Amino acid sequence: MMRRRTTLLTGCTALVLALGATACGGGPVSAGGGDKALSGQTVTVAGVWSGSEQKNFQKVLDAFAEKTGAKTQFVSTGDNVSTVVGSKIEGGNAPDVVMVPQVGVLQQFAQKGWLKPLSPAAQKTITADYAPVWKKYGSVDGTLYGLYFKAAHKSTVWYSPDALAQAGVKPPKSYDDMLKAGHTVSDSGLAAFAVAGQDGWTLTDWFENVYLSQAGPEKYDALAAHKLKWTDPTVVKALTTLGKLFKDKQLVAGGQKEALNTDFPGSVEKVFGPEPEAGLVYEGDFVAGVAHDQFGKSIGKDADFFPFPAVDGGTAPVVSGGDAAVVLKDAKNAKAGMKLLEYLATPEAAAVWAKAGGFLSPNKKLNLSAYGDDVTRATAKSLVGAGDSVRFDMSDQAPAAFGGTKGTGEWKLLQDFLRDPSDPKGTAAKLEAAAAKAYQG
């Protein structure tokens, strides 16, 4: 996959790790060529990141500044990116670059005429160094606006190696085997899964993995675009499959009621906290960051993962999320903003955050040695190796009213389904009614 440039890239990565991100010049796109061409200019970047994510992205911005002479400023928007950015545009204070966390929001920005198409240099790099699927998700009506800089691997099941060893089970290869292993873990004294039902987005991720594997990528794409109705038999089948897990008190820590009162960090705590209640938790690669940072777990030793297994003989799913960098058309310094995107497209930029941790890059030219541990290398290899079979988080592709709003749409309806999974067909009908309204709007 990366054999053509292994020697060159390994040397570059070693320099990056030893001397800092500016030690390696170039890559296919240079951001000002290292000649301080942007001295005196300030690039403003808006995004949802805060805490450690913001600190680590600042390291990337600092590397860009060192290379080009530009100053950078990051503005944290909170979760409601579109509202914050919209108000800034209306106030004549648009940021130069926005890190957009959802395909649906990127499409919304493009349709409002807010975005500047990517430069030929950025497009050339993305075409050469990324699987075509990432170009597809960054494009609207055939025009490429977004560069996916940070990705998430949402098809990872995390577990306590001690819990599985105590139960005498190994990481399963199929969904049915995973449920059987869960029952064995439960028989040994712990519940199988901690389910974060208080956060509706985690339930959409459960559904998407089951649906992608069971129904296949074509149906997945059609449902994501609402070209297939949520009342389709494939949806009812996936809900039925998920319902069997949700209603099994041996499999869900504390049963449905407790799951609905457990948020995402709480679900990780139930497996990796000081008083474990479950052996496994399904969610994205970012589980590792919580397990390590909050509970001191050594990733690969105290916490490990296996790929979300294939359902009903289908292909094992690879669902992803990600943050796309876009340049705003009305920005005061859009030209320098575009230079930042050209830099973010390089393996050099990705290596800065990869070294810091809590990061995956869809850039296939980033050498896996840039990542700090074997588990992250394994998740990155799985994501990049999936190529065009990767599918972006379905709820992130939907209008926010359906796929991204607390207490409404898909989030709420799947919470209702977790509470009472007895009527998959009825739930599918409610999902279709909510989807139809949101997509029409």
What keyword list fits this structure?
alpha/beta; D-Maltodextrin-Binding Protein, domain 2; 2 domains; 13 strands; 49% helix; transport; SBP
Secondary-structure topology with pairs:
Elements: H1 6-19, E1 42-47, H2 51-68, E2 71-76, H3 81-90, E3 97-100, H4 103-111, E4 115-116, H5 120-129, H6 132-137, E5 139-140, E6 143-144, E7 147-153, E8 156-159, H7 161-167, H8 175-187, E9 191-193, H9 200-215, H10 217-224, H11 233-246, H12 255-260, H13 264-272, E10 278-282, H14 287-295, E11 304-307, E12 319-328, H15 334-344, H16 347-356, H17 374-385, E13 391-392, H18 394-397, H19 400-403, H20 409-419, H21 424-440
Parallel strand pairs: 1-2, 1-3, 9-10, 12-13
Antiparallel strand pairs: 3-12, 4-12, 5-6, 7-12, 8-10, 8-11
The main pleated sheet reads as: 7 strands, mixed
Number of helices: 21
Extract low-pLDDT stretches. 1-33
Structural class: alpha/beta
Query: Can you give the mean pLDDT?
Result: 90
Give the end-to-end Cα distance, rounded to a whole number of Å: 42 Å
Gyration radius over CA: 22 Å
Number of beta-strand segments: 13
The CATH architecture of the largest domain can be named as: 3-Layer(aba) Sandwich
DSSP strand content: 5-15%
Shape: globular
What is the H level of CATH, i.e. the homologous superfamily of the largest domain?
A: Periplasmic binding protein-like II
- Kindly report the CATH topology of the largest domain: D-Maltodextrin-Binding Protein, domain 2
CATH class of the largest domain: Alpha Beta
